[in-house]
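Narrative summary of target 7.
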Amino acid sequence: MASAISILVSIPVSQILLGVALLSLLVGRARFRWPAVFVPLALFLGWLLVALAASPEPLVGLPQVKKLYVFCMLPVALAALPRVRDYLYVFTGWMVVASASAVLALGQFGWKYLLARESGEAFYQAYVAQRITGFMSHWMTFSGQAMLVALLLLSYLLFGPPLSGRWRMAVWAMLALLLSGIVLGYTRGIWIATAIAALPLLWCYRRWMAAVAPAGFVLLLAFGPASVQDRFLSIFQPHGEMDSNQHRVVTFATGVAIIEAHPLVGIGPERVGSHMEEYAPAWIRRPFPVGYYGHLHNIYVHYAAERGLPALVFLLGIFGVLLWRQRQALAQLDKHRSLERALHLGVGSAIVASMVGGLFEYNLGDSEILTMFLVIAAAGYSSGPSPGTLLESGTSSQPEPGVPLSS
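Modeled conformation, tokenized:
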């Protein structure tokens, strides 16, 4: 639990704790679980080694081999946290830490606004390249974390056991903080992913809410801060090279060219960034537009370019198996409010958000987001029922289905 929660603050702390948890499980001879998602996951990770062996520069790709350690979070979480209530505690920790990060981020936003105002520089131009980060080092990571926690929190508020008035107001306030951080993070891909992933939750709760949600978004744009309006409109009318539209066209087109040239095993792990100039289509002007070219800002294009089309198929298989698992779990539950229903709907929403967000950013290449994704995936396989609420979990003398009493 500490490893999963601390990833919102520090990668080294989280990974040290992950190692301690793994060692404890091995020493204690714990029983590991291997659900269906491990089939496409094993193929995905195995194909990384195939692509590495076929790479002209295999040593360059060693950082991706080191990142295999992060994937240990899935079997560790499955073994150490088998019950729904275990994830109740983890997600509550995420809620508290992410809210604190959002408070810090809002303070950063106010500070950046004052600095731009004092210097006489237009705020949009001053802010887009140096946005709020909360506890993280980059705004993409901060926004991605806030998105996942906000969706899990929204699912609980809509479908989980009712909270008392005081706690309910506090949790809604935390959700408001997270959503404010997402909006002021100016990360357009996260805006789109959050909106798309939230719609199924609203549809399942009240269909009319899903219908009017787009109207609420329009009102937010119409009456929100001018810089927020400018950021949204930049999707269609970018401010020259200040917004990333042009450079994302370059990365996408170059990725497609790499896939066409190396469809089976890709160009090799960690080699995409150093070969952008070589594979960029001739119609793309040189020098490239301003932007970061270390990866392709799209997990589907990037993994296919780096490791070949099989890697893309296996990645889609991971998403598909996880979503199918949530569908199966929900089919066994009634439509009354319960912790189990809130968890599986929240997990499904977070997976959809990760999939949509991956269209605009290399999100699963980020250790913080990948760790959270793996914890969420494990939560989708947790067992219930588990009494209690988000902030006050009850206890029971009866063992939960599929969990030995001795555990």
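Residues 386-407 have pLDDT under 50 and may be disordered.
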